[in-house]
Design brief:
With 460 residues, this protein is an alpha/beta fold. The chain has two domains: 4-215 and 403-459, 4-Layer Sandwich (Metallo-beta-lactamase, Chain A), CATH 3.60.15; 222-397, Rossmann fold. 30% of the residues lie in helices and 22% in strands. The chain is built from 14 helices and 22 strands. The chain has helices at residues 39-43, 66-69, 72-77, 88-115, 129-136, 222-235, 249-262, 278-287, 296-299, 318-323, 345-352, 371-376, 407-414, 431-445; strands at residues 4-9, 18-23, 26-32, 58-60, 84-87, 139-142, 148-151, 154-160, 168-174, 177-181, 205-209, 239-243, 271-274, 312-315, 331-335, 359-362, 381-384, 387-390, 394-397, 424-427, 449-450, 457-459. The strands form four sheets. Strands 6-5-4-3-2-1-22 form a seven-stranded mixed β-sheet. Strands 7-8-9-10-11-20-21 form a seven-stranded mixed β-sheet, with helices on one face. The protein has a six-stranded parallel β-sheet with strand order 14-13-15-12-16-19. α4 packs antiparallel against α8. The N and C termini lie close together (11 Å). 52% of the residues are buried. It binds zinc ion. Zinc ion (ZN) is lined by residues 63, 65, 163, 184.
Length: 460
C-alpha cells in the first residue's frame, strides 16, 4: 500500500484542521481541530471518524488554537490512548485552552437547555471541562528542530511557523518521502512573532493554509489604523468591543495600544481584558522569551509590560464580566471568542450592539457562518442566545493584526525552499482564498496543486 493522506477537516473550510496520514503500516493524525462557523460544519464535530480512534498510533498538533486542537478530548473519549506531540509552548497554552473549550461546550449546552432553544433535548456538550483537562495528560512536548518518532515508520520535526507562540509547521518523514503540514503560517512583519522559518528543500508535498490566500493585508501601520478606527467612538463616549482570541491576538492588540499610549497618541481609557486565561497567557510569553520579539525582562514588569495597555484591567470572574454591562464609555472591552461564536464576547455584543455610540472592531479572520462574519457583512440583526439583536453600533474591521500571513507572505514562504516542493495541497481556506492561491502557485511557483474535498483521500 502506498502512503495516503485523508483530509478530515480544513478542506474547503478554515476550521476543523485534521489530516490522517497512513504510512509505513501506521496511522497518524496531524491536528485534531474543531469545526466552527456554519451549522453544517459544526455538525461535523459529531460525525464518527472514518477510522477507529483506538487504532491511531500517534497525533501531532501544529499549534494550540482550538480549530487545530479542540477535537482532541473527543478523540480520547472515543478511545485514542496514544501520545499527542506538540511544542513546549503549545503544551502550556493547551493547558489553558482545552479545559476552557470543554467549559464553553458545557456552558452552551446548559444555556440551550435553560432557554430551550436547542433542537436537541437535552442539549449535550461535545465534551466537558474534565475531558479537556484529561486530554492534557496525553501531551508529549517536543523541541523545535528535533526529529521525533510519531509511530512506527513515521518521523516528524517541528519548525517555527511564526503564527502564535509555540506554533509550528511539521515536516513528516515516511517511506523515503517528506511532506510538510503548514499549520497556520504567520506573516513576516509581525511586531510580536518572528516570521516563519524557511521551507525545507525538495519536499514531496506541502499542505499549505490559504486563509488570506485572496488578500493582501493593509500594510499601513497598524497603530495608525487602530487610532483612526477607535478614536471617534471613544471621543463620543462609546464602548469599543473587540472580539479577539485570548492567546495571540489580544497580545498584539495590547502591544500596539501600549505603543500608542506611550507615544501620547491614545487616551488612557480603561481596557478590560475579559478573559479568564489572559494573565496566564502572558506568563507563558515570559517563559518562552526566546521565541518572540518581545523583551522578556519587560514582560515581567507590572508597569512596563509591553503586552499590556497602560490601563489594562483584567477581568477573570464571570460575575465581574457581567458587571461590565453597566460600564459606561469611553472604554474598550476585549473578549473571546475571536469570531464571536461563543464565550463572554456574546453577552458583550448582545449588550453593546443596539447602541449606535458603540463600535465593534473586528481584528481577525471571520469564517463564513460565524456571528463575526455576519457583522462584517453588515447584517442588520444577529442572533445571540436564540434572540434577534439589532446592530446599531458601528462595525469596522482592521487588517494587519492577523496572526496569519497574507497571500504575499504565504507565497514567500512557499518559495523559501531552494528546491521547490513537488506538489502543493491547498487547505484551510474558503473558496476565494483557495482559488487565488492556486493561481499564484501555478503562475509563480510553477508547481502542481490540488484543492482537496472534505474526506477525500490522496496518495502521497
Ligand atoms: Zn491558528
Amino acid at each position: 500500500m502506498p502512503p495516503t493522506l485523508q483530509f478530515l477537516g480544513a478542506a474547503k473550510s478554515v476550521t476543523g484542521s485534521k489530516f490522517l496520514l497512513k504510512a509505513g503500516g501506521s496511522e497518524a493524525l496531524v491536528d485534531v481541530g474543531l469545526f466552527q462557523g456554519l451549522k453544517d460544519l459544526r455538525k461535523r464535530n459529531w460525525d464518527p471518524l472514518p477510522m477507529d480512534p483506538a487504532k491511531v498510533d500517534g497525533v501531532i498538533l501544529t499549534h494550540a488554537h482550538i480549530d487545530h486542537t479542540g477535537g482532541l478530548p473527543r478523540l480520547i473519549k472515543q478511545g485514542y490512548t496514544g501520545p499527542v506531540y506538540c511544542t513546549r509552548a503549545s503544551q502550556e497554552l493547551l493547558g489553558l485552552l482545552l479545559p476552557d473549550a470543554g467549559h464553553l461546550q458545557e456552558e452552551e449546552a446548559r444555556y440551550a437547555n435553560k432557554e430551550g432553544f436547542s433542537k436537541h433535548t437535552p442539549a449535550l456538550p461535545l465534551y466537558t471541562l474534565e475531558d479537556g483537562e484529561a486530554a492534557l495528560r496525553s501531551l508529549v512536548p517536543v523541541d523545535y528542530g528535533k526529529p521525533f518518532k510519531v509511530a512506527p515508520g513515521i518521523e516528524a520535526v517541528f519548525h517555527p511557523s511564526g503564527h502564535i507562540l509555540g506554533a509550528a509547521f511539521v515536516e513528516t518523514r515516511f517511506e523515503g518521502k517528506r511532506v510538510v503540514f503548514s499549520g497556520d503560517v504567520g506573516g513576516y512583519q509581525n511586531a510580536v512573532m518572528r516570521g516563519p522559518q524557511p521551507l525545507p528543500d525538495g519536499l514531496d508535498a506541502v499542505l499549505v493554509e490559504s486563509t488570506y490566500g485572496g488578500r493582501k493585508q493593509d500594510h499601513r501601520p497598524v497603530e495608525e489604523q487602530l487610532l483612526e478606527k477607535m478614536k471617534p467612538c471613544l471621543d463620543r463616549g462609546g464602548v469599543v468591543v473587540i472580539p479577539a482570541f485570548a492567546v495571540g491576538r489580544c497580545t498584539i492588540i495590547l502591544y500596539h495600544l501600549r505603543q500608542l499610549q506611550d507615544a501620547g497618541k491614545f487616551p488612557d481609557v480603561p481596557v478590560y481584558l475579559d478573559s479568564p486565561m489572559s494573565t496566564d497567557a502572558t506568563e507563558i510569553y515570559c517563559k518562552y522569551g526566546n521565541e518572540h520579539n518581545l523583551r522578556a525582562d519587560l514582560l515581567k514588569s507590572s508597569s512596563d509590560c509591553p503586552i499590556r495597555a497602560r490601563t489594562t484591567r483584567l477581568v477573570k470572574k464571570a460575575e465581574d464580566s457581567k458587571k461590565l454591562n453597566n460600564q459606561r464609555g469611553p472604554a474598550i472591552i476585549i473578549s473571546a471568542s475571536g469570531m464571536a461564536t461563543s464565550g463572554r464576547i456574546t453577552h458583550h455584543l448582545k449588550n453593546r450592539l443596539p447602541d449606535k455610540n458603540n463600535l465593534v472592531l473586528l481584528v481577525g479572520y471571520q469564517a463564513v457562518g460565524t456571528r463575526g462574519r455576519d457583522l462584517l457583512e453588515g447584517k442588520p440583526f444577529v442572533r445571540i442566545h436564540g434572540e434577534q439583536v439589532e446592530v446599531r453600533a458601528e462595525v469596522k474591521a482592521i487588517n494587519g493584526l492577523s496572526a496569519h500571513g497574507d497571500s504575499d507572505d504565504i507565497m514567500k514562504w512557499l518559495g523559501s525552499a531552494k528546491v521547490a516542493p513537488k506538489k502543493v495541497f491547498l487547505v484551510h481556506g474558503e473558496d476565494e482564498g483557495l482559488s487565488a492561491m492556486a493561481k499564484r502557485v501555478t503562475d509563480e511557483l510553477h508547481v502542481p496543486w490540488h484543492i482537496p474535498d472534505y474526506m477525500e483521500t490522496q496518495p502521497l
